[in-house]
Amino acid sequence: MTMNATRLLRRSRAEAASSGSPSGAAAGAHRPDPGPPPGVRVRDLTVVYKTPLGELPAVGGVSLTIAPGTITGIVGESGSGKSTLALSLLNAVQPPGRIAGGSVEVDGLGDVLRLGGDELRHARGRHLGYVFQAAQNSLNPLKTVGKQVLDLGRSHGVDDLPALVRDARGLLERMGLDGARVLDSHQHELSGGMRQRVGIMLALVLNARLAILDEPTTALDMITQATILRIVREVHKERGLTTLMITHDIGVAAEVTDRLAVMYGGRVVEHGPTMDVLGAPAHPYTQGLIRAIPRLSGDPTQARALPGRPPTLGTLPARGCVFRERCPLRMEVCETTEPPRVAVEEKTVACHAVAARREEHA
């Protein structure tokens, strides 16, 4: 850490000691109350990527509502559009991709897709916190964690930098780390689980109200994974956040989320309360994902892999149902018509077969 950063860290320790409070107790004290957790409303979001075949949709007309104060999970195979959707919430899709249509309304911010320049930069961090899939990608290998906290504070115009460092240290200690040591460390001096927790700290230290976690447990051992999931739940509750978690692991989603959206081919095919989606899946893709989970007990042959392969940008059908090539319930209408959204109790399901069954029982 630079001499300036070291002085600020020492000052934050001294202030915490003189106040008789633990280092994390004053978290957020130098900033006004950020208010209640925001709701998010994604409407008809379309994201395309420029390819030799033209612009192809990675996210196609997605609509999704995230209730304030909830943890919503997005699951699906690799290439289903999960991370692209998450980046769209920050208006951070990079070329050759672009957001071609739709809106992302966040309470207190308005339509994020209409923000630009300094307004968008300040929204990221102050309102929207993002934890990247590979934690090391969010860390500068040439700077200590403490120096990066200071850089973050300066870029967002934080006046009380010692208090910001104190907040960072308190968050790290809340997550079971030696805050002072981590702030003095470079990326290569930290384990994968420690870097993941540093990523969570950097996403939250400016009191962001919407936390977006992209595969927060990827490549971590089971014990570290369980620790990260516990931290996610506790920080979400204690800080009063709205949280979106991207994952390919249904077990992770079942552990922490309140609601679950299942994506395939850039579409949301099923969405509802997590226990309803996992306990009584209605879409054949959701059923296939759950059927493919290996069992720790009983007959291991009960696990069945989904047939075929997930589509790529170049193989996504231009019309009809994107799942039809792998679907056991395929119907003639699936070839030409986009599936309607059907209400099944508290869930919405985009499937012609489900819609046909609903009509039969109406």
UniProtKB/TrEMBL annotation:
It holds the Pfam family oligo_HPY. Residues 15-29 have a biased composition (Low complexity). One of its GO terms (biological process) is peptide transport. The keyword Lyase does not apply. Residues 1-42 are annotated as: Disordered. Transmembrane segments: none annotated. One of its GO terms (molecular function) is ATP hydrolysis activity. Residues 40-290 form the ABC transporter domain. Keywords: ATP-binding, Nucleotide-binding, Transport. CDD domains: ABC_NikE_OppD_transporters. This is Oligopeptide/dipeptide ABC transporter ATP-binding protein. It comes from Sphaerisporangium siamense.
